[in-house]
Amino acid sequence: MKIHGLAIAGLVLAALTGALYWSNHHKPADTTAASADTPPKILTLNEAGISKIGLKRRGADQVVVAKDGSGKWQILAPKSFAADQSAVSGIVSILASLNSERLVEEKAGHLSQYGLSEPLLEAEVTEKENRTKKLLIGDDTPTGNAVYAKLEGDPRIFTIASYNKNSIDKTSNDLRDKKLLAVNPDRISKLELVASKRGLEFVRNKDQWQIVKPGPLRADSSRVEDLVRALTDAKMELDGSSSGSGDAQKITSAFASSTPVATAKVTDESGTQELVVRKKKDDYYAQSSVVDGVYKVSSVLGQGLDKDLDDFRNKKLFDFGFNDPLKIEIHDGSKAHFLTRNGQDWWSGEGKKMDIRSVQPLVEKVRDLSASKFVDSGYSTPAIELAVTSNDGNRLEHVLVSKNGEQWVAKRESEPGLYELDSKAVVELEKAADDLKPASAPSK
Length: 444
Fold this sequence. Notes:
Layout: H1 2-25, E1 41-44, E2 52-57, E3 63-67, E4 73-77, E5 81-82, H2 85-96, E6 97-99, E7 102-105, E8 121-126, E9 132-140, E10 146-151, E11 157-161, H3 162-168, H4 172-175, E12 190-195, E13 198-205, E14 208-213, E15 217-218, H5 221-232, H6 246-256, E16 259-268, E17 271-280, E18 283-288, E19 294-297, H7 299-305, H8 309-312, E20 327-332, E21 335-342, E22 345-348, H9 356-368, E23 371-375, E24 382-390, E25 395-404, E26 407-412, E27 418-421, H10 423-434
Antiparallel strand pairs: 1-6, 2-3, 2-8, 3-4, 4-5, 7-11, 8-9, 9-10, 10-11, 12-13, 12-16, 13-14, 14-15, 16-17, 17-18, 18-19, 20-21, 20-24, 21-22, 23-27, 24-25, 25-26, 26-27
């Protein structure tokens, strides 16, 4: 019996010894209980006081970002680049107030079991007076939704959420300002576009754009704004070019042998910046006057610049837009119509109050008069004359419409351009004018 009892005791002792060895040499299961109800914070820093961050991924060059004299973030290493301020600020925000998911050990004996003896990622944060904190990030936890982490000089081991690790683990490409032009779209005063061997020039007057080259023409401001947006949103597709890899050489070679699409120049109070865009097969490439190198860019940019003059011209005959005009005068052969608005009411030239339901279709037809295309000839003796007063009486627009065979050609008084109109639009305009009628007498 004694021998049998000793054997059992020996087996129990061996099992306990094995369990102790396993617990000291294996990562704890993700279900290990936290030492406190509320997981402790790992970092609590003054976000505004952080002046530099170094990110060192295992096997890669360190990425260093720091504030310059104006308080803007710049990439210092592995090469000097302008930084995407929002991207860097995102990392700063996470590191300034980093929560753990749980405390794993108060004092770790073996960092290697957590991947922390040679960390996957090191994030060094520098505050004022060169005070530094270094965060070490190791392996994934068994469940894969968190990673092990610790502060250098702190014996404790924590877990942090994987999404926090992913938000910190950035390359210089991730943090680089990828915009090819450094201009504020709201401050651009002039825009030049050379495409298809034809030069276009636009100038801004408050919120309105005007074509000044090849000649003074009304611009479709929304189309010009689309062009401005395409240019100011233009971003590089890095493809390894920032690290000096073979991809950069391929892109440079492709740019040199590609076909020019357009050269754009944008001017604001700081000066003029230039962007040259070329195309090879289905790929577009760009070179900027403010960013070193040549880069692939999106087809959206390339297609946005591949435009001609007519793409930017205002096709509308009248500029009163969605605001109802004050006066409309129409002469169509022997017919004449005079309308004046007072508040919501419309009145005829004879002083009769008009039926609003008959006036509104005419206003809409005048508002919608647009060129089906622009032409250089075809205008002759005017058959229809329209005069519209709007903008509180400060704008008077006079349009003359002539018939050339089956086509209608219009011109705005004192402007050189000619507008070919869809004949259906003219017929509907004439019908809306003929359908005008006075308001019904109020019932007694």
